[in-house]
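Comment thread on ticket #2218

A.B. wrote:
> Attaching the input chain for the structure job we discussed in standup.
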Amino acid sequence: MVHLGGNVMRVVLLVGALSLCGCAASGPSFVEESERMIPVPEGLARVVFFRTKDSALYIARNARITLDGEKIGETAYGGFHYHDVSQGRHRLQADIWDVPGGCELILDAASGQTYYFQVDPRDESFLAFAAGNLVASMVTDGELFSLGLELGASAAESYGRVCGGAFKLYPVDPATANWKLLELNLSG
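C.D. wrote:
> Ran it. Output below, let me know if you need it in another format.
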Protein backbone atom coordinates (compact mmCIF):
# COMPACT_ATOMS: atom_id res chain seq x y z
CA MET A 1 0.00 0.00 0.00
CA VAL A 2 1.32 3.44 -0.95
CA HIS A 3 1.04 6.26 1.60
CA LEU A 4 0.87 9.80 0.21
CA GLY A 5 2.31 12.32 2.68
CA GLY A 6 0.50 15.57 3.43
CA ASN A 7 2.66 17.65 1.08
CA VAL A 8 2.35 15.18 -1.82
CA MET A 9 -1.42 15.05 -1.38
CA ARG A 10 -1.53 18.85 -1.28
CA VAL A 11 0.36 19.06 -4.60
CA VAL A 12 -1.99 16.50 -6.19
CA LEU A 13 -5.02 18.50 -5.03
CA LEU A 14 -3.48 21.78 -6.23
CA VAL A 15 -2.77 20.40 -9.71
CA GLY A 16 -6.31 19.07 -9.89
CA ALA A 17 -7.78 22.38 -8.81
CA LEU A 18 -5.68 24.33 -11.31
CA SER A 19 -6.85 22.11 -14.13
CA LEU A 20 -10.48 22.86 -13.27
CA CYS A 21 -10.27 26.62 -12.93
CA GLY A 22 -9.99 29.39 -15.45
CA CYS A 23 -6.77 30.95 -14.26
CA ALA A 24 -6.50 33.94 -16.57
CA ALA A 25 -8.85 36.64 -17.73
CA SER A 26 -10.66 35.56 -20.89
CA GLY A 27 -12.93 38.47 -21.77
CA PRO A 28 -12.47 40.96 -24.60
CA SER A 29 -9.04 42.56 -25.00
CA PHE A 30 -8.49 46.06 -23.64
CA VAL A 31 -8.46 47.42 -27.20
CA GLU A 32 -11.84 45.80 -27.96
CA GLU A 33 -13.36 46.92 -24.65
CA SER A 34 -12.04 50.50 -24.95
CA GLU A 35 -13.87 50.84 -28.29
CA ARG A 36 -17.13 50.16 -26.41
CA MET A 37 -16.38 52.38 -23.39
CA ILE A 38 -18.42 55.51 -23.12
CA PRO A 39 -16.68 58.70 -21.97
CA VAL A 40 -16.59 59.21 -18.21
CA PRO A 41 -20.03 60.59 -17.27
CA GLU A 42 -20.34 64.07 -15.76
CA GLY A 43 -19.74 64.09 -12.01
CA LEU A 44 -18.00 60.69 -12.03
CA ALA A 45 -14.44 59.38 -12.27
CA ARG A 46 -13.28 56.13 -13.84
CA VAL A 47 -11.09 53.67 -11.93
CA VAL A 48 -9.25 50.96 -13.89
CA PHE A 49 -7.69 47.98 -12.09
CA PHE A 50 -5.30 45.64 -13.89
CA ARG A 51 -3.02 42.69 -13.22
CA THR A 52 -0.23 41.81 -15.63
CA LYS A 53 1.23 38.37 -16.25
CA ASP A 54 4.61 39.40 -14.81
CA SER A 55 4.31 37.10 -11.77
CA ALA A 56 2.92 33.58 -11.55
CA LEU A 57 2.28 33.87 -7.81
CA TYR A 58 -1.41 33.29 -7.06
CA ILE A 59 -1.94 32.60 -10.78
CA ALA A 60 -5.20 30.73 -10.06
CA ARG A 61 -6.50 33.35 -7.64
CA ASN A 62 -8.33 36.58 -8.36
CA ALA A 63 -7.69 39.67 -6.30
CA ARG A 64 -10.94 40.90 -4.77
CA ILE A 65 -11.31 44.67 -5.14
CA THR A 66 -13.47 46.68 -2.77
CA LEU A 67 -14.50 50.32 -2.91
CA ASP A 68 -15.55 51.82 0.41
CA GLY A 69 -15.97 48.30 1.82
CA GLU A 70 -18.17 46.99 -1.02
CA LYS A 71 -16.88 44.43 -3.52
CA ILE A 72 -16.81 45.93 -7.02
CA GLY A 73 -14.95 43.20 -8.87
CA GLU A 74 -12.08 40.76 -9.10
CA THR A 75 -8.84 41.19 -10.98
CA ALA A 76 -7.77 37.99 -12.70
CA TYR A 77 -4.27 37.05 -13.83
CA GLY A 78 -3.73 38.96 -17.09
CA GLY A 79 -6.95 40.91 -16.59
CA PHE A 80 -8.49 44.31 -16.02
CA HIS A 81 -11.81 45.79 -15.02
CA TYR A 82 -13.08 49.34 -14.61
CA HIS A 83 -15.77 51.17 -12.68
CA ASP A 84 -17.20 54.66 -12.66
CA VAL A 85 -17.29 56.17 -9.17
CA SER A 86 -18.60 59.37 -7.65
CA GLN A 87 -16.14 62.18 -7.23
CA GLY A 88 -14.65 62.52 -3.77
CA ARG A 89 -12.67 60.38 -1.33
CA HIS A 90 -12.82 56.58 -1.63
CA ARG A 91 -11.10 53.69 0.15
CA LEU A 92 -9.80 51.01 -2.25
CA GLN A 93 -8.63 47.57 -1.12
CA ALA A 94 -7.20 44.45 -2.77
CA ASP A 95 -7.30 41.11 -0.97
CA ILE A 96 -8.22 37.42 -1.12
CA TRP A 97 -10.96 36.21 1.20
CA ASP A 98 -8.87 33.42 2.76
CA VAL A 99 -5.47 35.12 3.15
CA PRO A 100 -5.00 37.45 6.14
CA GLY A 101 -4.58 41.15 5.42
CA GLY A 102 -5.26 43.43 2.51
CA CYS A 103 -3.69 46.37 0.70
CA GLU A 104 -5.58 49.61 1.17
CA LEU A 105 -5.23 53.10 -0.22
CA ILE A 106 -7.23 56.28 -0.50
CA LEU A 107 -8.33 57.81 -3.80
CA ASP A 108 -9.45 61.43 -4.06
CA ALA A 109 -11.41 61.14 -7.30
CA ALA A 110 -12.02 64.23 -9.44
CA SER A 111 -14.89 64.43 -11.91
CA GLY A 112 -14.00 63.38 -15.46
CA GLN A 113 -10.64 61.83 -14.52
CA THR A 114 -9.45 58.25 -15.07
CA TYR A 115 -7.24 56.55 -12.48
CA TYR A 116 -5.20 53.39 -13.04
CA PHE A 117 -4.24 50.89 -10.34
CA GLN A 118 -2.01 47.88 -10.79
CA VAL A 119 -2.64 44.77 -8.68
CA ASP A 120 0.38 42.53 -8.09
CA PRO A 121 1.03 39.52 -5.85
CA ARG A 122 3.07 40.36 -2.73
CA ASP A 123 6.16 38.16 -2.53
CA GLU A 124 6.37 38.76 1.24
CA SER A 125 2.96 37.20 1.88
CA PHE A 126 3.73 34.15 -0.23
CA LEU A 127 7.12 33.66 1.44
CA ALA A 128 5.57 33.91 4.91
CA PHE A 129 2.97 31.28 3.98
CA ALA A 130 5.73 29.02 2.56
CA ALA A 131 7.84 29.47 5.70
CA GLY A 132 4.86 28.41 7.82
CA ASN A 133 4.49 25.32 5.64
CA LEU A 134 8.18 24.49 6.00
CA VAL A 135 8.05 24.73 9.79
CA ALA A 136 4.87 22.67 9.92
CA SER A 137 6.40 19.93 7.76
CA MET A 138 9.33 19.65 10.19
CA VAL A 139 7.09 19.52 13.27
CA THR A 140 4.07 17.44 12.30
CA ASP A 141 2.19 15.75 9.48
CA GLY A 142 -1.18 17.17 10.60
CA GLU A 143 -2.93 19.15 7.87
CA LEU A 144 -4.91 21.41 10.22
CA PHE A 145 -1.79 22.25 12.21
CA SER A 146 0.07 22.96 8.96
CA LEU A 147 -2.70 25.22 7.67
CA GLY A 148 -2.78 27.03 11.00
CA LEU A 149 0.96 27.72 10.86
CA GLU A 150 0.75 28.87 7.24
CA LEU A 151 -2.09 31.29 7.92
CA GLY A 152 -0.47 32.39 11.18
CA ALA A 153 2.76 33.23 9.37
CA SER A 154 0.82 35.17 6.71
CA ALA A 155 -1.13 37.06 9.38
CA ALA A 156 2.06 37.93 11.27
CA GLU A 157 3.70 39.23 8.08
CA SER A 158 0.68 41.44 7.26
CA TYR A 159 -0.09 42.60 10.82
CA GLY A 160 -0.22 46.38 11.12
CA ARG A 161 0.56 47.02 7.46
CA VAL A 162 -1.55 49.32 5.32
CA CYS A 163 -0.51 47.14 2.40
CA GLY A 164 -0.46 43.55 3.62
CA GLY A 165 -2.15 40.40 2.39
CA ALA A 166 -1.64 38.51 -0.85
CA PHE A 167 -1.84 41.47 -3.26
CA LYS A 168 -0.51 45.01 -3.45
CA LEU A 169 -2.46 47.82 -5.09
CA TYR A 170 -0.75 50.96 -6.36
CA PRO A 171 -1.40 53.87 -8.75
CA VAL A 172 0.19 53.85 -12.22
CA ASP A 173 0.55 56.81 -14.57
CA PRO A 174 -1.79 56.74 -17.61
CA ALA A 175 0.94 56.24 -20.24
CA THR A 176 2.43 53.22 -18.45
CA ALA A 177 -1.00 51.79 -17.64
CA ASN A 178 -2.25 52.06 -21.22
CA TRP A 179 0.91 50.35 -22.51
CA LYS A 180 0.47 47.45 -20.03
CA LEU A 181 -3.27 47.19 -20.69
CA LEU A 182 -2.69 46.41 -24.37
CA GLU A 183 -1.82 42.81 -23.45
CA LEU A 184 -4.72 42.21 -21.04
CA ASN A 185 -8.29 40.92 -21.20
CA LEU A 186 -11.42 41.88 -19.31
CA SER A 187 -11.74 39.94 -16.05
CA GLY A 188 -14.92 37.90 -15.78
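A.B. wrote:
> Thanks. Noting for the ticket: The longest helix spans residues 123-139.
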